[in-house]
Design a protein that fits this description.
It contains 14 helices and twelve strands. It is an alpha/beta fold. The chain is globular and about 65 Å long.
Length: 414
């Protein structure tokens, strides 16, 4: 039986070139970067080179890159770090203008309603504790934030805005640069450093430009496991001058923002993967877009099927559709039995059977959210893979609509 992996938004296989770059740092060059002997200094040099490489891709300075254990930690460090820093600063600012004191006394945070749980959950916890007031910004039917809605939601006490670059479930691209310009204008008009602008770019890194000067973001989170790099490593861009409180304390690594012995092989792998992704994205985007559109067009021929996300302003590898009158989980199981590996939404939320908060935020019904399936293509995806999905999917949908899952005969799909 063939094996067709279409869940690259969840994670990607490690690129052989990335593995080759990492291997020496598991065995030969294994020193602790904090040590002053030769093995330690070699490891330190490797981390410094990786930091510079990541910064080059982002059009940033090397000292603006903080390595983390992944996208979730990067998001948490950005959000909690800004909010805690603003709160701590309050006690030191009795000589500052009253307007700024008022801002920090009642911190307000804005995030889009379709953010990843790594953003929504820490903010929800802070709101529950009374540390912040949280506004969840609605999206349109395609899952896009409307900049005018953000403009109307801003207040003098808003210290942070979080809008992801590209949605992990429905693939919609957000108007990050427009939002960045809007926030720059707000700061200038109100003579304040706030609000800072954070963006989760974990899904965008392999497909979109990451120039932080053009997007005007202050904090940008990346994840190695989404770009054919190693799992368990990521980074956070932190613009110079922005103050963060750390989540972990200890040896003071990563400019005192992320204590702990550096994961040297992972950091080298992340930098290698990020460089490869950016160098090859134009060619790969063109190839994937053709396959993506072929899959979308074929799936929409199935009756009572809807594309989720923007029809064109979406990631080149993302296809998310809702099949009415079926359960997405059941369809994924039968696809799996045929060697096709897809998902019903975000892998990070797969332990719950609750309908996708992203699809619900676009105005779709619970039924449509429950019937959604996400196919995300990757380096190994071929036209024959797409054609096989299109061959078997109509039969799966038809049987699920008319029969109890326990009565399904897998021979029907072969």
């Amino acid at each position: 039986m063939q094996s067709i992996y279409l869940d690259h938004a969840a994670t990607t296989p490690l690129d052989k070139r990335v593995l080759a770059a990492m291997l020496p740092f598991f065995t030969k060059t294994f020193g602790n970067p904090s040590s002053f002997h030769t093995p330690g200094l070699r490891a330190k040099e490797a981390v410094a080179a990786a930091r510079k490489s990541c910064a080059t891709v982002l059009n940033a300075h090397a000292d603006e890159i903080v390595f983390t254990s992944g996208g979730t930690e990067a998001d948490n460090l950005a959000l909690l770090g800004v909010i805690r820093s603003a709160t701590v600063s309050l006690g030191r600012m009795t000589m500052r203008p009253y307007s700024l004191l008022s801002t920090l006394s009642h911190p307000h945070v804005i995030a889009s309603a379709i953010e990843h749980p790594a953003v929504l959950e820490p903010l929800a916890a802070l709101e529950k504790s009374g540390a912040i007031e949280l506004t969840l910004l609605p999206v349109d039917k395609f899952g896009r934030v409307v900049p005018d809605d953000l403009s109307h939601a801003l207040r003098p006490e808003t210290i942070l805005v979080s809008v992801m670059y590209a949605n992990n479930e429905i693939g919609t691209l957000e108007p990050i640069a427009e939002i960045g310009r809007l926030l720059l204008k707000w700061r200038k008009t109100h003579d304040t450093p706030y609000p800072y602008f954070h963006s989760d770019a974990c899904q965008a890194a392999g497909a979109l430009a990451l120039d932080v000067e053009k997007s005007h973001v202050d904090l940008l989170a990346l994840n190695g496991g989404k770009i054919y790099g190693p799992k368990g490593v990521g980074c956070l861009f932190v613009r110079r001058g922005l103050k963060l409180e750390p989540l972990m304390y200890g040896g003071g690594q990563e400019r005192n923002l992320r204590s702990g012995t550096e994961n040297v092989p992972g950091i080298v792998g992340l930098a290698t993967a990020l460089g490869l992704a950016q160098a090859e994205k134009e060619r790969e985007n063109k190839r994937l877009t053709v396959l993506r559109d072929r899959l979308i067009q074929g799936l929409l021929k199935i009756p009572k099927t809807r594309l989720n996300g923007h029809p064109t302003e979406r990631l080149p590898n993302n296809v998310n559709v809702s099949f009415m009158d079926i359960e997405g989980e059941a369809a994924v199981l039968y696809l799996d039995a045929l060697g096709i590996f897809a998902s019903t939404g975000s892998a990070c939320a797969s332990q719950t059977l609750d309908p996708s908060h992203v699809i619900l935020a676009t105005g779709m019904s619970y039924e449509a959210a429950h019937g959604s399936i996400r196919f995300t293509l990757g380096h190994g995806t071929k036209k024959t893979d797409i054609d096989y999905v299109l061959k078997v999917m109509p039969g799966i949908v038809e049987k699920l609509r008319h029969m109890s899952p326990v009565n399904l005969d897998m021979k029907y799909f072969r």
